[in-house]
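Can anyone check this?
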Amino acid sequence: MNPELSRILDLPLPDQLQLVEDLWDHIAASKEPLPVPDWQKDELDRRKRNFEANPDSAIPWDEAKKRIRRQ
């Protein structure tokens, strides 16, 4: 195992969570573009075509959140 990873895993859970948050904030602030795999682009294209063909099939975001939270 990577020695740096081992040291991170030995940290208390709150410190690990803070490290993840700090890392995520650093990545989010980066100007470097994140790669998007072709399969994700294809899936987005498929969903867009489906929505354009069936616009009534979409639901508002608030309704989607309610449905998710009920499950």
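Reply from J.R.: I decoded it. The first helix runs from residue 3 to 9.
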